[in-house]
From TrEMBL:
Record's keyword annotation contains Transferase: yes
GO molecular function, one term: hexosyltransferase activity
Gene3D superfamilies: Spore Coat Polysaccharide Biosynthesis Protein SpsA, Chain A
InterPro entries cross-referenced by the UniProt entry: Glyco_trans_2-like, Nucleotide-diphossugar_trans
CDD domains reported for this sequence: Glyco_tranf_GTA_type
Domain called Glycosyltransferase 2-like: residue spans: 4-137
Pfam families in alphabetical order: Glycos_transf_2
Top-level lineage group: Bacteria
Name of the molecule in the record: Glycosyltransferase involved in cell wall biosynthesis
Keywords, comma-separated and alphabetical: Transferase
Taxonomic placement: Bacteria, Pseudomonadati, Pseudomonadota, Alphaproteobacteria, Rhodospirillales
């Protein structure tokens, strides 16, 4: 079993060296590391190449810096890396995050030892007290396997749980063969990770039945850096810039209860973010007026102030 790590990079000169250093420090190094530079305008690509050279010197069998000719967004970068990766297991790592030194070995050990097709990884963040998973909140969603490793027997149902995060901090590893033709939704910058991983998980469940061969490692093997300009912490001055999460459009006409629960969870997060980040009531009212029909389609109540919108 071999592991490929794909790192999408855009203007990450402040962090990418530390990210690649965390891979160099692995007790079991990955077999392949691909950095996809999404037309950066800073020094990040040069620093990434230097980091890849150090990994190659340490014995990583294949390293590559793939430069895209134009900026296409993180989904496009992930897709190009996915298509280049040759490992039997694939993991993504954001260019500002870091792996704990045993992350790679734990991925391979757990996936091989328990015949897992997909594995969700625990993380902590640069904000004290912000971590995943909160096992008390996920009671009833997991079945013990060993130590801090659990099975997610109903992974598509778990994905819609408000305290479950699959894709935040790129905290998923997957057998390359089960991805099939699924790809990240290019052009989307809102919940595009969960949209992709949910579709991959649906495919696993469809092929393998229940319980799904999906695991959850309930310890923080990823350090997720929350940046001041990250989307989830950014103010927005125009409601039109708040993209519809791709899952809401994708599953709008689905009769599957788990699809609808996922959309309800993502829609509520989207609405909450809009109300918190927009600058005034006029902008909030315009957002609710534009998207009220879609939100109500998934049984999401608008605030009383704008319920008539």
């Amino acid at each position: 079993m071999s592991l490929s790590v794909v790192i999408p990079l855009y203007n990450g000169e402040d962090y990418v060296e530390e990210t690649l250093t965390s891979l160099a420090a692995q007790t079991h190094p990955p077999d392949e590391v691909i950095v996809v530079d999404d037309a950066s305008t800073d020094d990040g690509a040069r620093l990434a190449q230097a980091g890849l050279d150090r990994l190659a010197a340490l014995g990583v069998s294949r390293t590559e810096l793939l430069r895209l000719p134009a900026n296409g967004g993180p989904s496009a970068a992930r897709n190009r890396g996915l298509e280049r990766a040759g490992g039997t297991v694939l993991a993504f790592l954001d260019a500002d995050d870091c792996w704990r030194e045993d992350c790679c070995s734990e991925i391979l050990r757990c996936m091989q030892g328990h015949a897992l097709d997909l594995m969700v990884l625990g993380f902590d963040t640069s904000d004290p007290g912000d971590y995943f998973p909160d096992m008390a909140a996920l009671r009833g969603e997991v079945v013990p396997l060993e130590g801090t490793l659990f099975r997610l027997p109903r992974v598509t149902a778990s994905a819609s749980h408000p305290d479950f995060f699959m894709g935040r901090a790129s905290n998923v590893a997957v057998r390359r063969g089960v991805i099939g033709n699924e790809r990240f939704a290019e052009g989307s910058h809102v919940n595009e990770n969960i949209d992709f991983w949910y579709r991959v998980a649906k495919g696993i469940v469809k092929r393998g039945g229940a319980p799904a061969p999906v695991g959850l490692l309930a310890e923080p093997v990823i350090r997720y850096r929350i940046l001041p300009d990250s989307l989830s912490h950014r103010r927005c001055d125009d409601w039109r810039r708040l993209q519809v999460p791709p899952s809401l459009e994708r599953f709008r006409d689905s009769g599957d209860g788990e699809d609808r629960r996922l959309c309800r969870t993502l829609g509520r997060r989207w609405l909450t973010f809009a109300l918190d980040s927009l600058p005034d009531d006029a902008q909030r009212a315009a957002f609710c007026d534009a998207h009220g029909v879609l939100l109500r389609h998934f049984d999401i109540d608008l605030p009383l102030l704008w319920r008539a919108a």
